[in-house]
Amino acid sequence: MKIIQRPSPNYNARAGNVVPSLIIIHYTGTKTADDAAAYYLNTASDPNAGPISPHYMIDGDGTVYQFVAEDKRAWHAGVSEWQGETDINSTSIGIELVNEGEFNNYPPFEDAQIDRLVTLCRDIQGRFNISAANVIGHDDIAPKRKKDPGPAFPWSSFRKRLV
Question: What would the pLDDT profile of 60-89 be if each residue is shown by its tens digit?
Fold first, then answer.
C-alpha cells in the first residue's frame, strides 16, 4: 500500500514506550484532505486550532497519508478514557477519514476510503496484535465530547472485514 509521508511536528514519545493496543477512528470534519492536513501541519488559519495530529489520514479516494510514525504519540484523542486508561494518545494509533461529519449532516464514507481503512487497520493489527474489539471510534473514548466517526460510519460491515 502506498503511503504519502506528511510529517507533522505535533507528536512526542509514547509514555513508558508502550505498544499501541487501540486503533481510534475519526472523521476530519473538513471538506478536503488539504484542509485537514493544514491543522496537522500547523498551517491552518484558525487561531483556535491547537496542535493536533493523527498517525494516518485517508482521503475519499483511498489515498493514505502518514503524519506521525507509529512508534510516536500522535495528538488525536484529547481528553478521553477507555477501560480505565486515560492517556489514549500513548496507547493508540489514530486514523482520520476525510469526511465533514456533523458539519454536513454526516455524509456517507466513500467505498475506496473504507476499503483502504480495512487494509490499513489489518496491517496495524498484525504489527501490534490489536483485536478487532479494540478498533473503536473517537466517540467511544470521549462520548460526551466527540461524535466521530458518526452514524454514517459502517461499523457492522467494517468489523466483519477486520482480523
Answer: 999 999 999 999 999 999 999 999 999 999
The pLDDT tens digits for 104-132 are 999 999 999 999 999 999 999 999 999 99
Instruction: From the candidates 70, 81, 85, 96, give the one annotated as an active-site residue.
Output: 96
Q: How many CB atoms lie within 10 A of CB 111?
A: 11
User: Structural domains in the chain?
Assistant: 3-160 (3.40.80.10)
Is 96 labeled as catalytic in the residue annotation?
A: yes
d(CA 146, CA 40): 18
Report if pTM > 0.85.
yes
Query: Which parts of the chain fold into alpha helices (H)?
Result: 33-40, 88-91, 111-128, 138-141, 155-160
CB 144 within 8 A of CB 133: no
CA distance 50 to 39: 8
Cα dihedral 39, 40, 42, 44, rounded to 10, equals -20
